[in-house]
Amino acid sequence: MRKRRAGKTVLAAAGVLLLAVAGYVIYVFTAYYRLEDNLPLMVTTGEGASPAVSAGETYRLASYNIGFGAYSDDFTFFMDGGKESRARSAQAAEENVAGALAALTALEPDLVLLQEVDVDGTRSHHVDELSMVLEAMGGYDATFAQNYDSPYLFWPLLSPHGANRAGLVTLSRFSFASALRRSLPIEESLMKLVDLDRCYSVHRMAVENGRELVLYHFHLSAYTSDGTIAEEQLEMLLSDMLSEYEAGNYVVGGGDFNKDILGNSSEVFGASGEDYTWAQPIPAELIPAGLPTIPPPGEQHPVPSCRNADMPYGPENFVVMVDGFIVSDNVTVVSRSVVDTGFHWSDHNPVYVDIQLQEP
Asked: Are residues 7 and 109 part of one domain?
C-alpha cells in the first residue's frame, strides 16, 4: 500500500512538473514578438545641438558595445562558454556603465554609437542604463532603437538570464532631421528566442551644402546556427547604404559587426580562433564598391576591440576586431583607433574614426 501511494505521489509530482514546463514553453512563445519594420524613432533633443554639418570639417564618430554593464575584465558569460549570466550587482552594473561613459566622453566625440544598453533587465539588476547615458551626454540629440525584449529566460538554472529590454543608443552633436528603425532578418528556429530582435537605425542630418549625412548604427548577429543569416543582414544593410550614396548623400555606418573585420585577427593578435566560429571574416564579395569597411588599425601595436568572455581577460583570452565602420567614398577618413581600456568595463573596447565630408 505504501509503495502504491509513493508511486502515486511521484506520478503526481511529475505531472505538476510537466504542466509547469508546458506552461513555461507556452509563455515564452506567446510572449515573443518582433517590432515592425520602418519604425520612426523618437528623438530626445540635446541642448545646443548644431543645426547642420559642414563639409571639410573633421568630426569624430565613436562606437562602443558596453555589454549591459556586466563585463568587468574578470567577468565570464555563459553564452561565450563562461559561467555568469548577470552583472554581479546593481552597483557593479552602474560602475561599469559609468566607467565606459567616462572613457567615451574623454574622446570628445561628435557622433556616438552605443550597443547593449539596458533599459530594464534582470541581467543588469534593473539599472536604467539609458538614463545614465542621457544624463552623461545631455548636449547630444539621442535616439533609442530597441533590439531586445525577451520573456523571462530560466537559464542558467541557478542564475537565470531573466527578462531584459535593451537596444542601440545613437547620439549626435548635430540635430537629427529624422530617425528610423529597420528590422533585420533573423533565424526562424528556436535560436530566435536567445538572439536579439536585430535591427539597424538610420539617422539623417542636414549638411550645409544641401546634401544629407546619413548615419547607420548596427549590431549584427553572433549566436546563429545558420551562417547565411549574418550575410543576409549585411546584404540588406549595405544595399540600403549604397542607395543613399548613389543618391548623392554622405553615408557613414558603425557598430558591432560580430565578424572579424580585419579578416586575420588571430594572426594579428596571436590568439587562436579555431574554437570561436562566431568570429568569421566578412566575405569580401558582399562589400560594394564605394562603401569600404574601415576597421581600426591593426598593423602596428594592435589593440583588439573585443574579447571572448569564456574566461577572465588575460594572455590566453581569444581577442578579435569586430567593431568598426563603413564610410562612402565621398567621406575622407582622417584617423582611426581602438582605445585600450584593458576591457575593464566591457568585453569590448571603444573604437573611433575621424572623418571629413568632401566638398562636392
From this structure: no
3-state helix, strand, coil in the chain (%, to 5): 25, 30, 45
- Measured between alpha carbons, how far is 193 from 150 in angstroms, rounded to an integer? 8
User: Whole-angstrom Cα distance, residue 234 to residue 148?
Assistant: 19
CB atoms within 10 A of CB 21: 11
Residue 187 binned pLDDT confidence (cut-offs 50, 70, 90): confident
Please provide residue 130's backbone torsions phi and psi, each rounded to the nearest 5 degrees.
-60, -45
* pLDDT 10s digits, 247-306: 999 999 999 999 888 888 888 887 666 667 677 888 888 888 888 877 666 556 689 999
Half-sphere exposure of 271 (CA within 13 A, CB side): 22
For residue 320 the three cell numbers come to 578579435
Please give the model's pTM, rounded to 2 decimal places.
0.93
What total of structural domains would you count in the chain? 2
Diameter of the chain measured on Cα atoms: 92
C-alpha–C-alpha distance, residues 252 and 216, integer Å: 6
- The residue among 332, 286, 343 whose CA lies nearest residue 309 is 343
Beta strands in the chain (DSSP E): 39-40, 58-65, 111-121, 141-153, 162-172, 178-183, 199-206, 212-219, 250-256, 293-294, 306-307, 319-320, 323-327, 331-338, 351-357
Nearest alpha-carbon partner for 97 in 60, 74, 65: 65
Q: Are residues 22 and 167 in the same domain?
A: no
Burial 290-324 (b: 16+ CB within 10 A, else e): ebebbbbebeeebbbbbbbbbbebeeebbbbbbbb
- Domain span including residue 182: 37-357
Amino acid at the residue 35: L
Kindly report, residue by residue over 326-342, the tens digit of the pLDDT. 999 999 999 999 999 99
- Please state whether beta strands 250-256 and 293-294 pair in parallel, antiparallel, or not at all (unpaired): unpaired
